[in-house]
Design a protein that fits this description.
Helices cover 29% and strands 31% of the residues. It is α+β, with helices and mostly antiparallel strands. Strands 1, 2, 3, 4, 5 and 6 form a 6-stranded mixed beta sheet that branches.
């Protein structure tokens, strides 16, 4: 699964990022029937003490139209943990990891749940 995520991110991050973006959040969705998807948004605010910061979206970087989608027979918490692990690995050695880490923070979570912080400056 790492290669699929890395390829998707490489395509997404191979563009100019709006200057107003100060943080990134990976939004996860449970689509039903063991289907999952993820988008990446850039936000104008980052606050580790306020989990609503991902709501201050500046751009979806085209990912709402090009979601990363996959099937896995799993519970939501396992999907979150696995995707967090994959994204942490990308942040270590991914092609565009520096673009992500150039901002104040990076989070991941289901849109109706808590946000887990993957990176802060």
């Amino acid at each position: 699964m790492y290669n699929e995520v890395a390829d998707w991110l490489n395509n997404v991050l191979n563009q100019d990022i709006p200057e107003e973006v100060v943080a990134f959040c990976f939004n996860l969705y449970e689509d039903g029937d063991n289907a999952w998807s993820m988008e990446l948004v850039g936000t104008e605010r980052f606050d580790v003490d306020d989990e609503d910061w991902p709501c201050d979206e500046v751009t979806d970087l085209g990912t709402r139209e090009g979601l990363l989608a996959w099937n896995k027979d799993s519970e939501w918490d396992v999907v979150l943990e696995e995707m967090s692990t994959i994204l942490r690995r990308y942040l270590e050695d991914g092609k565009y990891a520096q673009i992500l880490k150039s901002k104040e923070g990076i989070g991941i979570g289901f849109v109706d749940g808590d946000v887990e912080i993957l990176f802060t400056k």
